[in-house]
Amino acid sequence: MAKKLIPYATQWVDEDDIAAVVAALGSSNLTQGPRVLEFEEKMAAYCGAKYAVAVNSGTSALHLACLAAGISFGDEVITSPITFVASANCVLYCGAKPVFADVQEDIINIDSDEVRKKIGPKTKALIPVHFSGNPCEMEKINALAKENKLLVIEDASHALGAKYQGQMIGSGQFSDLTVFSFHAVKHIAIGEGGMVLTNNKDLYEKLLLYRSHGITRDRKDLNNYEGDWFYEMHSLGYNFRLTDIQSALGISQLNKLDAFVDRRKEISRRYHEAFADFQKVKVLVETDGAESSYHLFVILVEDRKTVFYKLREAGIMVNVHYLPIYLQPYYRQLGYLPGLCPVAEGYYKKTLSLPMYPKLSDQEVDFVIDTVKDILLKERMA
Ligand SMILES: *Cc1c(COP(=O)(O)O)cnc(C)c1O
Q1: pTM of the predicted structure, to 2 decimals
Q2: Which protein family is named in the record (predicted)?
């Protein structure tokens, strides 16, 4: 009989989610309709932002945020090396150059002191990434941005439901734009999808324009109104639209978000307790004033490779997040060199992501903990 595998992440979809999608399928709008607007309004209300723009992926959300921020050829944008490639690719899409600032030891978010060193005359924006769901030191990052007239785009793909200084991530307290992803492994799952939040009306209007081909029908914006059929294309936009079908799932998932985040926090407490006095496992530390929503639970171990394979043999499908982006072959070929961010590179050698998702049972968490400890204790004997 096949062994039951424990994935590192998976979605939670109930009957009511299915019913919501079925209802959307029977309605008159399949693509952008009333459910997209409702999903946007609910996300904006949940996070405490004024405006929200839904798109077809987190990657599109990052690209759209960069376009709205006016990032273009010749600009530099500073981001973290320890993130999914999309956090830096969005800068390349705009013809600009990603600059990597090293991460904080034990926290693994971009270090504001390192960011300061990388700011130059071409720097246009900062993209802090709330790695694993733990918010960056946003107050310092935002102060740096203000000082240097830079825009801040939070990549909050890991951090829906997280808080910083008492406010929800996405509130825009310390940034201009915040990006979320609704990929199946993230806090709410809609297949593929993303959203950009902002409190700035000007940025909001640009987001709307670039989401749909750069086309406007708004009569006040038209150069030359010829009749009610008329629209004009004012910038080179894209088709980043989300469907009503996916938005129905998004709205339904959003109702469960608090419960999802609570369960993730419970699981993290269980892991924290288990490894607190266990020297062979190090866990990450939360940022001062932050409350992580635990997209990932990361541990650091010596001889990561052996531990990875032994856990997988036991049916625990651990993962690694992430190889520093600039070590990816595509980035190497652009001229980035090893040694650029030593803390990030040291972290990569030891990191493992343990299973973390709301459906994970206490028994499964305990099985993961016992197996990790077993492997590491036997390692010493060998
Ligand atoms: C998932 C993710 C993205 C991209 O989101 P998609 O919805 O998969 O396009 C971007 N940044 C980070 C940090 C992510 O984890």
Answers
A1: 0.97
A2: Belongs to the DegT/DnrJ/EryC1 family.
Answer yes or no: are the C-beta atoms of 144 and 116 closer than 8 Å: yes
Ligand 1 site residues, Cβ closer than 6 angstroms: 57-59, 83-84, 86-87, 129, 155, 157-158, 181, 183, 192, 194
Residue extents of the structural domains in the chain? 6-254, 258-381
pLDDT tens-place string over residues 2-38: 678 999 999 999 999 999 999 999 998 888 899 999 9
Identify whether 186 is a catalytic site residue: yes
Phi, psi values for residue 204, rounded to 5°: -60, -45
| 258-381 CATH choice from 3.90.1150.10, 3.30.1840.10, 3.40.50.1820, 3.40.50.300 | 3.90.1150.10
Q: Which atom of ligand 1 is nearest to the CA of 185?
A: 1
What local confidence, expressed as pLDDT, does residue 293 receive?
98
Name the stretches of the chain with pLDDT < 70: 1-2, 379-382
In CATH, what class is 6-254? Answer: alpha beta
